[in-house]
Amino acid sequence: MIKQPSIPTNMLLDDLRQLCALPTVFGQRDELSSAAQRIALMMRQHGLHTDVFTTPGAPVVVGQRTGRSPWTLLLYHHYDVAPPGPWRAWHHDPFQLAERDGALYGRGVAAGKGPFVAHLAAIQAMLATADNLPCSVLIVAEGEGLLGSPHLSTVVRDMQDQWRVDGCLASGGERNAAQRPICYGGAKGMLQVRLTTIGANQPLAAGLGVSVPNPLWRLIWALHHIKSDQEEILIEGFYDTVEGPRRSDNKLLREAHLDESGRLSAWGLGNFLFESTGVGLVRTESTLPTCNVSSLVVEPQSEVALIPVAATAQLDFQLVPQQSPQAILDLLREHLAAKEFADVDVERLPGGYGPAATLLDDPFVQQLSKAGNEVFGTPFDRLPLGPFAQPLHIFTEAFNVPVASLGCLRPYSAINGPNEHILLDDLVRHAQVLMEFMTLLGNQQAKGGDHESAVGAT
After folding, report:
1. pLDDT at position 449, please?
2. Residue 448 CB neighbours (<10 A)
């Protein structure tokens, strides 16, 4: 084992304090553009050669550094964050870093900005004690990760011939019951859809509900044909390409233990759906796609009893290998038409991408799990996928490389709620894992190791 340098904690905190002060809520283009310039400067200050790529949305910031080995690890990050919600629910200003009892509070500290500055701290630590990094690194930080990465693929395609990429690592997911990060062999895909129904050309009195159509009822009836009360997705053909876990994956699924009690306590739940637990819960989250209703809106909104002019519902799908967003969109439209809901408008929202999965016995994923042994004293649990989507498919499609994502969250991190927080030690260890991982990758290349990887179907 190579003794790694210490993580510069003060620098990590200073970087995070600067980034948390930037209100980079998704969709706020001016704030995101200003933040991109600050992130680019921060990358340069840590020894990276930096470019900022403008897009119709938020900029994509890219930092590069050549290492002793030409083998190049791409680190995917996003710097946009969820809205803070009511500030009165926070114990302090959500856009100011706060420290209390070893925990860091602020919007983005656990999802987005925290893992990003941890990786910068790891790179800075290695450069402070050596002339160069063990392997080459390419950091891609976008500002539309929470919107489905609508412009990331354009930047990657434009730079595909100029970038070398041999593997991609993201920060996503959670810790297991022993509070060690989980290593995922990829991430689910994303498809976001808006369903719209239209009624009269003006809001009408509620009493006319016996003689005129209510677009909200029409929408509710359409949704009833999409998902049952038993959580089954009813779209004809939706599950046709979904495959179960491989035999070798089943062993890893049985060995993984989610923090079930921590989740239920932090989320205020009595149990999971169908009282799932143990390996059944792990298998469900790791291998099944989802369909979720994330919003239901009528126009106009009013406290007066009215028949609305229009009603919309936003659906988001998280997809597993062999499912493509366009194919699922086509199936949804065909299904609604077959159920006599052809009048429901189905609009695909910007962004979205396919799933990306690397086999868990791939050397890239195994090396990441091994890096956990150096930091936590035991290899990481490995799971095929987790209950989250990331645009890793964009990188597998462009470069045909293995991908993985490493958990950083705890159940109480509250990345979408008030008082988002993370332990400082969690970020320090996240940085330490990157140092170990890059060292393993660089050493393997130096020894002439085989980096041919089996990238799963996407």
Report:
1. 53
2. 7
128 pLDDT higher than 60: yes
Digit-coded pLDDT (tens) for 414-424: 999 999 999 99
Residues in Cβ contact with 140 at an 8 Å cutoff, skipping those fewer than 6 apart? 60, 61, 62, 74, 75, 76, 77, 152, 156
Mean model confidence pLDDT for the chain: 95
Q: Tell me the longest C-alpha to C-alpha distance in the chain.
A: 79
C-alpha 73/C-alpha 31 separation (Å) is 29
- pLDDT score of 445: 67
pTM for this predicted structure? 0.95
Q: Hey, what are 153's tokens?
A: 């693929």
- pLDDT(121) > 90: yes
The two beta strands, 403-406 and 182-184, are antiparallel
Model pLDDT for residues 130-185, shown as the tens digit of each residue? 889 999 999 999 999 999 999 999 999 999 999 999 999 999 999 999 999 999 99
Give the pairing of strands 135-142 and 69-78.
Answer: parallel
Sheet holding 103-105, edge to edge: 98-100, 103-105, 421-423
